[in-house]
Amino acid sequence: MTDAVYRLKKVSKAYGPREVLYVDFLEIQRGEVFGIVGPSGAGKSTLLRLLDFLEPPTSGQLHFTDCYSSNGSRAPLDVRRRVTTVFQRSVLLNTSVYGNVAYGLKIRGDKEIQRKVKGVLEQVGLSDLIRDRARFLSGGEAQRVALARAMVIEPEVLLLDEPTANLDPYNVGLIEDIVTDLNRERDTTIVLVTHNVFQAKRLAHRVALLLEGKVVEVAPVQDFFEAPRDSRTAAFVRGEMVY
User: Fold this and answer.
1) For residues 8 and 182, what is the distance between their CA atoms, to the nearest angstrom?
2) Cα separation, 12 vs 9, whole angstroms
3) Rounded Cα–Cα distance for residues 72 and 85 (Å)
4) How far apart are CA 212 and CA 39, in angstroms?
5) What is the DSSP letter of 74?
6) Please, is 117 exposed, middle or buried when counting C-beta atoms within 10 Å of its C-beta (0-12, 13-18, 19+)?
7) Is the pLDDT reported for residue 233 higher than 60?
8) What is the DSSP letter of 135?
9) pTM for the model
10) Considering only CA atoms, which of 221, 105, 90 is closest in space to residue 147?
11) Sheet of 68-69: strands edge to edge?
12) Taking burial as the number of CB atoms within 10 A of a residue's CB, which of 12, 25, 163, 217 is the most buried?
């Protein structure tokens, strides 16, 4: 018996005549960190957009827990609010760090905004910048604000699209620690898209390889990196150019 947050069956996404993604079957389990790797153009970000309900599949069934199944229409607001994404280059509001992190709580009518914002900024190590303007932050600080903005609304699923790309090792380590703690302490389901196979190895419980819009292999992290079943996975893990 599985406890799947997502279940995808014969899901495709096409733009005009061009199919950019086809997933025959995929389950993402509650409480796991699920890594998605693959070269540029493999369909990773497209898959994340479907998981965040930013657009529906062209065909097939995408099930989310027991409350939603895609039928070509937009997912209802109460479902969309259970999932949020942190992008590689998150856009911050032209206001303070506090204002950015508080924004999602305000539109939800939350009554404990100040307490929650202060708590999450402490978690990401930015308490001392709470009144600073977001436009003056470094890249690593700005990405931690984006992560705090996602965390403060306590999503059931957190989607991360290359969250540490172009950051220095210090900030990469900070963000990876935050993600690990979030998964362990809150049991948040995390889907991580990354070009960094070492990051996937450090953080994920299971990993999927996407090539040319299709899932080549899904396996527990140790099997994926040490005993892959597919020769293309083995080549990718070795650092070879696989397309």
Assistant:
1) 25
2) 9
3) 21
4) 9
5) P
6) buried
7) yes
8) G
9) 0.92
10) 90
11) 68-69, 59-64, 4-15, 18-29, 214-220, 206-211, 33-37, 189-193, 157-161, 83-86
12) 163
Give the side-chain half-sphere CA count within 13 A for 78: 3
Sequence-separated (6 or more) residues with CB below 8 Å from residue 16:
none
Give the position of tokens 């509001």.
93
Residue 52, class by beta-carbon neighbours within 10 Å (0-12 exposed, 13-18 middle, 19+ buried)?
Answer: middle
> What pLDDT digit, counting tens, does each position of 21-79 carry?
999 999 999 999 999 999 888 999 999 999 999 999 999 999 999 888 887 778 889 99
| 115 backbone dihedrals φ, ψ, rounded to 5° | -60, -45
- CB atoms closer than 10 angstroms to residue 139: 13
- The C-alpha atoms of residue 124 and residue 106 are separated, in whole angstroms, by 20
Q: How far apart are CA 142 and CA 158, in angstroms?
A: 18
d(CA 109, CA 17): 43
Query: Can you read off the two tokens belonging to residue 123?
Result: 């978690």
Average the pLDDT over 201-226 and give the result.
Answer: 96
Q: What is the pLDDT of residues 92-140, one digit of tens each?
A: 999 999 999 999 999 999 999 999 999 999 999 999 999 999 999 999 9
